[in-house]
Amino acid sequence: EDHEHMSVHAYILPDGTVAGTFTGSKLRIYPPHAGVGAQVLSRRMPEPEALARRVLTALGYTGFAILQFKRDVRSGMYDLLEINCRYSTWTELPSRTGCNFPLAAYATLVGQSLPSLEQREGISWLDLERDLRGMRTYRATGEWTWRAYVQSLTTVRCWAYFAWDDPGPFFRKLLKR
Q1: Which is nearest to 13 in space by CA: 69, 54, 64?
Q2: How many angstroms separate the CA atoms of 11 and 63, rounded?
Q3: Cβ neighbours of residue 130 under 8 Å, at least 6 residues apart?
Q4: Rounded CA gap, 77 and 173, in Å?
Q5: SS (H, E, C) 65-120
Q6: Measured between alpha carbons, how far is 118 from 102 in angstroms, rounded to an integer?
Q7: What is the layout of strands, in order, in the sheet containing 78-84?
Q8: Residue 169 pLDDT > 90, yes or no?
Q9: Degrees, nearest 5: CA angle 7-12-15
Q10: How far apart are CA 111 and CA 104, in angstroms?
């Protein structure tokens, strides 16, 4: 199921030290069963995090990376789907939960002290437009009920197109409609 998708964000210093990691669990994706995160929850997941650290260390990787995993429910193993060397659509979630990787990269480049990269759990990011479109499929297949959906929204603190400190993208999207 789609909630078996997870991402590990990591920042590796030039000397190979892991400066910090963030793990996020995709509650729903759009399009369902084949897309990108529509609601993503900040949640520590030791197994995929440890696997990500091993993979990045074996590659001798430095810098920022996102490792995408999906757990195989039959074996319980985490399969690595891809490694991205860019920030994700929902990069604001790690930043808002204590892992500001763009700031850490900047600090490294200019020789400043690194910010703390300690993840807070239980906070989610939401792309409401994509999520509502995906709910048609999730409801039709019985994977999500409206009750469970509304309950999942109680953890949302980051939005794809809205932020109190920068409402411009939200209003621009409204004007385009």
Answers
A1: 64
A2: 5
A3: 30, 35, 36, 38, 160
A4: 40
A5: EEEEEEECCCCCCEEEEEEECCCCCCCHHHHHCCCCHHHHHHHHHHCCCCCCCCCC
A6: 14
A7: 78-84, 63-71, 5-12, 18-30, 36-42, 124-126, 156-159
A8: no
A9: 160
A10: 10
Residue type, 155: T
Q: What is the tens place of the pLDDT at every residue in 20-51?
A: 999 999 999 999 998 899 999 999 999 999 99
Percent of the chain whose pLDDT exceeds 70: 100
Query: By C-alpha distance, which of 151, 164, 43, 27 is closest to 99?
Result: 43
CA nearest neighbour of 47 among 18, 79, 74, 16 = 79
Tokens representing 154 are 């109680």
Residue 139 near residue 158, CB atoms below 8 Å: no
Radius of gyration of the chain (CA): 17
**What is the DSSP track for 112-166?**
PPPPP--PPPS-EEE-HHHHHHHHHHHHHHTS--HHHHHHHGGGEEEESS--TT-
pLDDT recorded at residue 54: 97
Around 62, how many Cα atoms within 13 Å sit in the side-chain half-sphere? Answer: 8
Model confidence at 170, pLDDT cuts 50, 70, 90, reads confident
